[in-house]
UniProtKB/TrEMBL annotation:
<feature type="region of interest" description="Disordered">
    <location>
        <begin position="131"/>
        <end position="155"/>
    </location>
</feature>
<dbReference type="Pfam" id="PF00376">
    <property type="entry name" value="MerR"/>
</dbReference>
<feature type="coiled-coil region">
    <location>
        <begin position="79"/>
        <end position="106"/>
    </location>
</feature>
<keyword id="KW-0805">Transcription regulation</keyword>
<dbReference type="Pfam" id="PF09278">
    <property type="entry name" value="MerR-DNA-bind"/>
</dbReference>
<dbReference type="GO" id="GO:0003677">
    <property type="term" value="F:DNA binding"/>
</dbReference>
<feature type="compositionally biased region" description="Basic residues">
    <location>
        <begin position="146"/>
        <end position="155"/>
    </location>
</feature>
<dbReference type="InterPro" id="IPR047057">
    <property type="entry name" value="MerR_fam"/>
</dbReference>
<dbReference type="InterPro" id="IPR015358">
    <property type="entry name" value="Tscrpt_reg_MerR_DNA-bd"/>
</dbReference>
<dbReference type="InterPro" id="IPR000551">
    <property type="entry name" value="MerR-type_HTH_dom"/>
</dbReference>
<dbReference type="InterPro" id="IPR009061">
    <property type="entry name" value="DNA-bd_dom_put_sf"/>
</dbReference>
<keyword id="KW-0175">Coiled coil</keyword>
<feature type="domain" description="HTH merR-type">
    <location>
        <begin position="1"/>
        <end position="71"/>
    </location>
</feature>
<dbReference type="GO" id="GO:0003700">
    <property type="term" value="F:DNA-binding transcription factor activity"/>
</dbReference>
<protein>
    <submittedName>
        <fullName>Helix-turn-helix domain-containing protein</fullName>
    </submittedName>
</protein>
<keyword id="KW-0804">Transcription</keyword>
<keyword id="KW-0238">DNA-binding</keyword>
């Protein structure tokens, strides 16, 4: 079994030692022992750090990522959660494509001002609608959490 000190883990993973210490503090990774003042890790920590990095890139919080590992530290990823996040990313991609296309149109629009351009006005309306939907989703999620807390008590 190959062991790596914190410096080697940082070098191979690209994750700074301070972040590695934080990940250890919150239970995402764990060192096996110390050699002097330097933490020693199992070589498998590099795979786990890659999974953590992928989760962060996908928009999962560190708490959500921690929940994707079993008590033994092995990945135990809930597929439904991945599907839900993939669906959310798909919606964001569609929104961003529409925004990109609208901005390109407005940039090339022959109208004398942006406010005279029907596509720009449509973009403004869709942005306002999108913010209203996001706000109501956020409010609904906050309300649901508040209700759960009041039923269960404080977290």
């Amino acid at each position: 079994m190959k062991f790596l000190d914190i410096g080697k883990v940082a070098e191979h993973s690209g994750v700074p030692p301070s972040t590695l210490r934080y990940y250890e503090e919150i239970g995402l990774i764990r060192s096996l022992w110390r050699h002097g003042l330097r933490r020693q890790f199992d070589g498998d920590v590099l795979l786990k750090l890659s999974l953590i990095s992928l989760g962060k890139a996908a928009g999962f919080s560190l708490t959500e990522i921690a929940g994707m590992f079993g008590r033994d530290g092995r990945p135990d990823i809930p597929r439904a959660q991945l599907h839900a996040r993939a669906d959310e990313l798909e919606r964001q991609i569609l929104d961003l494509r529409m925004l990109r296309d609208a901005l390109r149109h407005v940039a090339d629009c022959p109208a004398s001002t942006h406010l005279e351009c029907p596509s720009f006005r449509k973009l403004l309306k869709s942005t306002t609608r999108s913010r209203a939907v996001d706000h109501s989703r956020s409010h609904a999620a906050t309300t649901a959490v508040t209700r759960k807390r009041s039923v269960r008590g404080p977290l």
